[in-house]
Automatic annotation (TrEMBL), chain A:
GO cellular component, one term: site of double-strand break
Name by which UniProt lists this protein: Replication protein A C-terminal domain-containing protein
GO BP terms, alphabetized: DNA replication; double-strand break repair via homologous recombination; nucleotide-excision repair
GO molecular function terms listed in the Swiss-Prot or TrEMBL record: single-stranded DNA binding
Family (UniProt): Belongs to the replication factor A protein 2 family.
Subcellular location: Nucleus
Alphabetically ordered keywords of this record: DNA replication, DNA-binding, Nucleus
Domain of life: Eukaryota
Domain Replication protein A C-terminal: 172-269
InterPro entries: NA-bd_OB-fold, RFA2-like, Rfa2/RPA32, RPA_C, WH-like_DNA-bd_sf, WH_DNA-bd_sf
Gene3D superfamilies: Nucleic acid-binding proteins, Winged helix-like DNA-binding domain superfamily/Winged helix DNA-binding domain
Pfam families from the UniProt entry: RPA_C
Lineage: Eukaryota, Fungi, Dikarya, Ascomycota, Pezizomycotina
From TrEMBL, chain B:
Main location: nucleus
GO biological process, alphabetically ordered: base-excision repair; DNA replication; double-strand break repair via homologous recombination; mismatch repair; nucleotide-excision repair
Nucleus found in the keyword field: yes
Molecular functions per Gene Ontology: damaged DNA binding; single-stranded DNA binding
Subcellular locations according to the entry: Nucleus
UniProt entry keywords in alphabetical sequence: Nucleus
Species name: Aspergillus coremiiformis
Similarity comment text for this entry: Belongs to the replication factor A protein 3 family.
PANTHER family (alphabetical): REPLICATION PROTEIN A 14 KDA SUBUNIT (PTHR15114:SF1), REPLICATION PROTEIN A3 (PTHR15114)
Keyword Cytoplasm (UniProt): no
Protein name: Replication factor A protein 3
A Pfam short name: Rep_fac-A_3
Amino acid sequence: MDNYGYGSSYGGGGGGGGGFMAGETNSPAGGKSADGNNTTLRPITIKQALDATLPYPEADYQIDGAGVGSICFVGQVRNVSTQSTNITYRIDDGTGEIEVKQWVDSATADSMDTDDAKAAAGKNQVVNNGYAKVFGKLKTFGNKRFVGSHCVRPVTNINELHYHMLEVVAVHLFFTRGPVGGTGGTAGGAGGADATMGGVDDYSASKGLPAMSPVARRVYNLLKTEPQSNEGLHAQLIAAKLSLPMPDVARAGDELLTAGVIFSTVDEQTWAILEY
Amino acid sequence: MSLQTPRVLPAHLHAFHATPANPHTPTTVRLLGTVTALRGDTATITCGTNGDVTLLLKPDSHLQMGRLVEVVGKVVDVEGGLGVRVLASFDWGSPADCDYKIYEHVVNATHRFKGVFYEAVE
């Protein structure tokens, strides 16, 4: 029961790891991916969908400080209402309730008339109070949040539901605490806050890193492992080595600077690890 | 305010029991278990190796012996401890198709990372 890689290494969050959650570092310029470039599919709970923040209008929604493209969730269908252009479902997954709109594709609607399609549709029917898995995108209409979906299909095996829940937690932890096994990934939840204040020598032991975003962790790891002069590495070089866009690296740098684990050397864009 | 129904095991029922001393918000929970006894308006479900829970049924809850059911209900006092007044139930079919260990992990994760699943008091 207790051997979650995360649970044990993070000390169950006692004292709540100070430092930075990825979310705090997002300046408006950071979330500028509303152009549909974000093609990720993130498993979430409905509560996360309802709690998702919008950094500014027209932006992508953010959950745990990470922009979300498409989402998927599993829940019970509480209501189905079929209109001429769309089917609206109310889905409840035990963490909240949300409306899901699935637009009716006129092409598929027509082919429903054939017997084959009918048989297939009958098998694939989502029923009231049954479980369903929904794939779609978070949308807002007026003040109401809903999911614009392209696929709603029934779930018949309970293990799929449970798998989804665990995946949700795994992804949540990825975004809040970084990848499994990353350097310094064992930053004790309790150690983080104190270390930022005065326990600098903890860093050289590489165990007191505060919570940071995955990008920041990658930048930190590169600075730690890459051969360099005492001037450290320039942000552009880091961006090239990690094949990351410059703004992301700049943001990660800010995060690390604020956390006091790196310092700028010859200019503001050149950083070295702070350790003795 | 949307209805939140955290998934629990029998051992967690006390934490979701509304008493003056414990005014927890969600008192409605979800339980998963196999129906092992039916007695008219009450029933018993067995939650893997985690013990039994007494259910107070609704007239229209149709539980079947030996089936795996997911129950949404309110935690209430029953003689001999805590039980659940059923609000809704869902039949998941044969218990053989469910790995109950995974459910235990789900419940564990739910409460360890509450923020993802329900609004916790304080």
